[in-house]
Amino acid sequence: QVQLVESGGGLVQPGGSLRLSCAASGFTLDAYVIGWFRQAPGKEREFVAAISWSGHATDYRYSVKGRFTISRTNAKNTAYLQMNNLKPEDTAVYYCAAGSSMVRMIGAYNVWGQGTQVTVSS
């Protein structure tokens, strides 16, 4: 069974940090682009970050540049999203996904995790 499972979400105060993990099973991530997306209540799902199969190329939406870092450890079949200096507007369900190319469109990603809640509030 092909699966992605996110973990690491939770409640954090503004300025705090969280690290999200995305573990793959049933397939290997090394030949796939990994993307992170998020969806806030009442909002459309939006692109957050992506990383190439090799890990040498990354892409971030402007609002998270300098605060979030996407990475992957192919030998562990796992990807990560380190989130620093979190803001209330970062509150959302965060999803990891595997796709075929380094693009921001949701339709390019074929396998999705179940999501993990990130809440930034004082």
Helix content: under 10%
Q: What do the pLDDT scores average to?
A: 96
Strand content: over 45%
Largest beta-sheet details: 7 strands, mixed
Shape: globular
Which segments are poorly predicted (pLDDT under 50) over 5 or more consecutive residues?
Answer: none
Report the end-to-end length measured between terminal Cα atoms: 40 Å
Q: How many individual helices? A: 0
Structural class: mainly beta
**Helix and strand pattern:** EEEEEEEEEEE
Question: Over all CA atoms, what is the radius of gyration?
Answer: 13 Å
Count of beta strands: 11
Structure description:
With 122 residues, the protein is mostly beta strands. It is 0% helix and 50% strand. It contains no helices and 11 strands. The strands form 2 sheets. Strands 2, 4, 5, 6, 9, 10 and 11 form a 7-stranded mixed sheet that branches. The N and C termini lie far apart (40 Å). The mean pLDDT is 96.
Feature tags:
single chain; 122 residues; seven-stranded mixed beta sheet; globular
Compact summary:
This protein has 122 residues and is mostly beta strands.
Task: Map the helices and strands.
Layout: E1 3-7, E2 10-12, E3 18-25, E4 33-39, E5 46-51, E6 58-60, E7 68-73, E8 78-83, E9 92-99, E10 109-112, E11 116-120
Parallel strand pairs: 2-11
Antiparallel strand pairs: 1-3, 3-8, 4-5, 4-9, 5-6, 7-8, 9-10, 9-11
